Amino acid sequence: MRPAKANSRTGKAPRVERGLGPLRRVLCVVLFAAACQRPTDAAAAEKPAPPLERSVHAHTVTTLRGESKRLAEYRGKVLLVVNTASECGFTPQYAPLEALYQRFKERGLVVMAFPSNDFGAQEPGDAKAIEEFCSSRYKVSFPLFAKIHARGPDVSPLYRTLTEASPESARGEIRWNFTKFLVNRRGEPVARFEPVVDPLNEALISQIERLLNEPAPAQ
Predict the structure, then answer these.
(1) Highest CATH level, class, for 53-212
(2) Catalytic pick among 28, 36, 88, 134
(3) Most buried of the four, 10, 40, 57, 178, by CB within 10 Å?
(4) Is 88 tagged catalytic?
């Protein structure tokens, strides 16, 4: 069954953790808006690209602790893939992401964080610093992966699949931290939620529940 296209780029106002300075929140939103106007890098567009993998399960990635991980191991799970950063105005979304994971993990949801320094240089730390920050500040228990490039000429193969093999409404270069992609049990990216959409937004939760209710693929 072909995944339904989701009009998921908008939603209710995001939840913001108390204590985040209003100037920093405003700055993050302004930078995100400016990034949305950034033209695609022409040189990157001309660079020959390898064949496009249409399934997330085709990729192997590296965990934050340096271990190789085949995403095919998540076959049958629903994935929420997020490019994260520790110094962004959207960083408090780690808290609702963890809440979302705790709420749905027994039903088969896996939240995956891929730190990236591509947007405003807001993830400058090394793997140890990122792990300590996520653990101490937000008690993150979902999988954390090594820093990657989420856009540009060195974009990771995983993010090329997410941005080019999604439904047409969800395609296109990522513009900022905490862009969220939903992947169905077959490894197909089916929906995208922009950074301003809170992880506990009703539209996002509705899509997660719809995907969790789909039958798992035959092994």
Answers:
(1) alpha beta
(2) 88
(3) 178
(4) yes
